[in-house]
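Q: I have 81 residues here and want to know how they pack in 3D. Can you give me a structure?
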Amino acid sequence: MNEKEHFDDATIHRLMGTVLALAGEVYVLRDRVQALEEVLEQTRILQPGTIERLQLSPERQAALDPRREAFFAHLTAEGQR
């Protein structure tokens, strides 16, 4: 086993590397979204708490649901067939 590898199985090691890379990307995206929300609130484009109170219309939710389902299908074995 390579000194830098924390797992005996190289596949698990690569998988964990991928998970950690994605977690890092999510962290950066969360920071950027927070910064955007703060700028929108400071410039009075949005009132504080607007996003937390946001409720999507049934039409908008119906448009988003298939996109989310397709995304998760792509990530799972269903999307790999």
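Q: Anything worth noting?
A: The chain has two domains: 1-48, 55-81. The chain has a mean pLDDT of 88.
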